[in-house]
Design brief:
By secondary structure, the chain is of the alpha/beta class. The protein contains five helices and twelve strands.
């Protein structure tokens, strides 16, 4: 894989239980990213529809699928007109009439290149969404990439599987907010550690509030912070990166889960 120069961005904002308000915020961030000539922007988890609030009983009452599909089509058009790739999250009812917590990757031509359905969900999310059953990687500009959503970050196996498939850039969409501000340094360390352990770049974008549990940031394959948002603020963060083959830690034992386990209990 040849090295590719990219200007990547994350566009945190405070999600609302309102598609129109979220689309207005997305548009603001897209305009800022276009002014900065970003090649790719990452948005938060479920940022089209908003994250299901605690008092939500039925997603069918909360999310209008037809309007969500129209909004996604508009995002595709914006990607094409701005010549910018977009990673965006939404609640989504699939062709089997199953609700998913989904992330889409749209390229600069407006094509839906790939989607990912969240695997490691919270108890609240599992009231509405079924777990994803696939962990795809995909090609963009000669790079192999992957996506994860929010609490997926806590499970190192997912990061490692993306690494084993050759991912050199991982996009992480999150909506971690509402309490537990103490998690901010913990989750920053989790993201940094997974970037460094697997030797790839990570672009992570979180809901900007209220009371975020993590801060949007861009990490190098060494786990260094290349850009970081201010706490609980809508803003755009940018980093210029040179993405090549995954770095470091290339050799690992595939049979690790087959190791003999010995206990003195």
């Amino acid at each position: 894989m040849e090295t590719v120069s990219l200007r990547v961005a994350a566009g945190p904002f405070q999600l609302q239980p309102n598609l129109k308000a979220n689309m207005e915020a997305i548009q603001r961030q897209l305009e800022r990213a276009a002014e900065k000539k970003a090649d790719l922007i990452v948005f938060p988890e479920a940022c089209l529809t908003g994250y299901p609030p605690k008092d939500c009983v039925s997603l069918g009452d909360y999310v209008d699928q037809s309007k969500t599909e129209e909004a996604l089509s508009l995002i595709q058009q914006k990607a094409k007109s701005l010549k910018m790739a977009i990673a965006i999250g939404t609640a989504w009812r699939d062709e089997a009439n199953v609700w998913r917590n989904r992330a889409y990757f749209i390229d600069e031509k407006g094509n839906n290149v790939q989607f990912y359905d969240k695997i490691q969900q919270t108890g609240h999310e599992r009231k509405f969404f079924q777990d994803g059953k696939r962990l795809p990687t995909f090609e963009w500009r000669g790079l192999r990439m992957g996506m994860l959503i929010c609490m997926d970050m806590r499970y190192p196996e997912l990061w490692r599987l993306l690494r084993k498939d050759g991912a050199a850039l991982v996009l992480h969409l999150a909506s971690a907010y509402g309490n537990s501000e103490w998690k901010v340094p913990v989750l920053d360390g989790t993201l940094r550690g997974n970037a460094a352990s697997n030797g790839y770049f990570v672009v992570s974008c979180n809901n900007a509030g209220p009371v975020p549990m993590m801060v949007s940031a861009i990490y190098s394959p060494r786990g260094l912070v290349l850009a970081k948002a201010n706490y609980a603020e809508e803003e755009l963060i940018i980093a210029d990166i040179e993405v090549g083959p995954p770095q470091g830690f290339a050799e690992f034992a595939d049979e690790v889960y087959l190791l003999q386990r010995v206990s003195d209990r």
